[in-house]
Amino acid sequence: MSRPVFLFAFAYDPANALPEVVQELKTIDRLLSDTEAEVKVIWQATQADLETHFDLLRNDLRLFHFSGHAGPHAIQLNRDYHTAALSFAEGLSRLVGVAPGLRLVFLNGCSTEGQVQTFLDQGIPAVIATTKPLLDQYAVDFARRFYQNFTRRNSKMTLQQAFDAAFYSFIGEQGSFSQDMLYEQMRSIGAADDDSNEALYELHLHPVKKSVAQERFADWLVQIVEKDNTALKKEIRELVGKARLEEAIQKLTTVLPEATQVKAQFSAARHEKMMGMLDSDEWFKANAKITHATLELLKLL
Does pTM surpass 0.85? Predict the structure, then answer.
């Protein structure tokens, strides 16, 4: 059986070099070499490199980390060893989204927050991104702190705890950031609005996959056995079609913990109807909304 894979892609453009990208590669490789993780590293990554790796590793991929120039809508890859090429989030997110066991995308370039929603829309549970341009040295420093907390042997930190610890350690040493500090060796490929009140790094969670924040690195080292839920999905759709929504939701909660929220919404709406707080039209609208949410969750199976 193959092992879970952690994929790191580093883009390096000699014409607009980021010296610390090399250090980031060495640091991450050192930190993960002491774990049981299978690490794949792509140096001067091209679009073709990513497409090949996402296709080959789709069933084993747990983390995708990008390091290099970036912006609100794209990352900068290599066209070849001497020239750069952009990879836009809309396409890249769909390539990454084919990996059912992927837990985290880390976009370690300038102002990548603008790409986050595109990745979440493809079902990625968690994305670490930046809110503004950042110095090359800060990018490698934060990455080091995060992976040191999360991946070190016998670490008990969850993803959320590792991120928080890295962030507070980072700002404790580096202090607050303002635009006048960001003057050279920035990982930027385009202008972005700078709000100095925003945290430089943020962890974004998928609205129905927030439980990923409580997972530990050790959890990601376990091979995920994909279950065939084809028959169950068909049964749930048939129940919905027969207006047996409560039964459909109940079956969905047995395989998808996120469905408990929809179950609670249905129970609340039904209680309000029984108490005379919802008329027929309002009850119909509530059912339609909950039905839509149920079918959307069904896509996660």
Answer: no
